[in-house]
Amino acid sequence: VTSDVLRRAASFERVVFAQDEAAGVRAIVAIHSTRLGPSLGGLRMQPYPSEDDALTDVLRLAEAMTWKAASAGLDVGGGKSVVIADPQRDKTEALLRAFGRVVESLGGRYIVSVDVGTGSADMDVIKTETGWVAGASPWNGGSGDPSPFTAQGVAQAMRACLHHVLRNPSPKGRRIAIQGAGKVGYHLAGILTREGAEVVMADPNLDSLARAVSDFSVSTCTPAEILSTSCDVLAPCALGSVLDAQTIPRLACRAVCGAANNQLATPRDASRLAEAGILYAPDFIVNAGGLISVADELHGWSEQRVRTRVDGIGRTLLDVIHRAIETDRTTNEAAVDHARERIRTLSALAP
Ligand code: NAD
After folding, report:
1. How many C-beta atoms surround the C-beta of residue 222 within 10 A?
2. pLDDT in tens, the chain (351 residues)
3. 307, containing H or E segment
């Protein structure tokens, strides 16, 4: 492990490595902060090439959860976990239950939920070993798929972007490019086309793309074309690190506002976007709808409460944009500032 990664890990409240050879588990749980409440974040299952890669990823993801939860006004902290395994091949009941025992051993400091490579059915299995689980199936006390709420939040954030750059929040008549027609991209396309936007989408999965075309009459382009498609707002809803020194000069949009986690390849890319005159809506503010829904399970899930809270994402984003302008910083820096401020204020009030 490089000294950089170790230095980063040292700023975390707790980083736990767990191994159970019999069950085939190699896992890392990273608890970045519990200042606002128990840390909550998904379990990512991926065949990382090395433990170093897995550790780097889990640290980055766990820290982002702290800022996401704090910005969304939630009383939970930031954490995340990874299991180094191929979800298609290695995911067994024994593995999931062994991981559940790791979560149980943390005594509620970390609550596990779904992420890339895991779903509600996996949370149901983990729940046989520990109660510190969110995002299980509805029959098992969970709130089900959070994607519609994530999409609702992205749409609210998009209205805030349109208001800021075009002085009119309505998506009607605006051209929106969505990268990814998966769970969030699909629901987002539905909301935007119902409001009269002209939506263009790309996805290498042609079945997903065809569903959006048939349900919402969106137009399509190839994955290679979507980033440089001329549009008012580009919504990355597929992969991380899509905004970098190569792609930013090719963008033809007024604003970037989408659901994908970690859209900026490096913090420097936030400045590149600002220099190109493109408004960047920080991903962890925009995509908090799913976390808002999952975290609501801790209070007995209420759809109305979740929807009201998700609607607040637009207001939060406008506050962040204004803070960035006033302090001459990037929107990303202003967003982390905004989250840190809430944590500082509430920690000062703590007994
Ligand atoms: P998903 O897996 O359902 O959909 C992603 C889609 O992107 C897939 O259809 C895939 O084929 C497509 N894709 C892959 N490479 C692409 C490319 N080069 N160009 C265009 N499309 C491509 O995932 P999702 O749940 O819709 O999540 C989308 C993003 O939002 C992910 O980054 C995820 O981490 C993030 N996110 C999701 C939620 C949620 O509630 N689902 C919450 C917060 C953040």
Report:
1. 10
2. 778 888 999 999 999 999 998 888 999 999 999 999 999 999 999 999 999 999 999 999 999 999 999 999 999 999 999 999 999 999 999 999 999 999 999 999 999 999 989 999 999 999 999 999 999 999 999 998 899 999 999 999 999 999 999 999 999 999 999 999 999 999 999 999 999 999 999 999 999 999 999 999 999 999 999 999 999 999 999 988 999 999 999 999 999 999 999 899 999 999 999 999 999 999 999 999 999 999 999 999 999 999 999 999 999 999 999 999 999 999 999 999 999 999 999 887 665
3. helix 303-311
Number of CB atoms found within 10 A of residue 166's CB: 14
| Residue type for position 72 | A
Residue whose CA is at the smallest distance from ligand 1 atom 33: 260
Is 80 catalytic? The answer is yes
Q: Annotate 87-111 with b (16+ C-beta within 10 A) or e (fewer).
A: beeebeeebbbbbbebbeebeebbb
Measured CA to CA in angstroms, residue 261 lies from 64, 191, 236 at distances of 9, 21, 9
CA 292, 41, 134, 299 torsion-angle sign: negative
Residue with tokens 């995340």: 80
Q: Cα–Cα distance between 172 and 180 in angstroms, integer?
A: 21
State how far the Cα of 275 lies from the Cα of 283, in Å rounded to an integer: 19
All residues at 6 or more sequence positions from 43 whose CB lies less than 8 Å from its CB, including other chains: 80, 81, 82, 83, 99, 112, 113, 114, 115, 117, 118, 122, 126
Q: Is the CB of 183 under 6 A from ligand 1?
A: yes
Exactly one of 80, 91, 127, 183 is catalytic; name it: 80
Q: Which one-letter amino acid corresponds to residue 195?
A: E
Cα 145 to averaged position of ligand 1 atoms, centre (Å): 14
182 pocket-lining for ligand 1 (C-beta < 6 Å) = yes
DSSP string, 247-274: TGGG---SEE----SS-BSSTHHHHHHH
Residue 327 near ligand 1, beta carbon < 6 Å = no
- DSSP code for 80: E
Nearest protein Cα to ligand 1, atom 32:
260
pTM (whole model) above 0.85:
yes
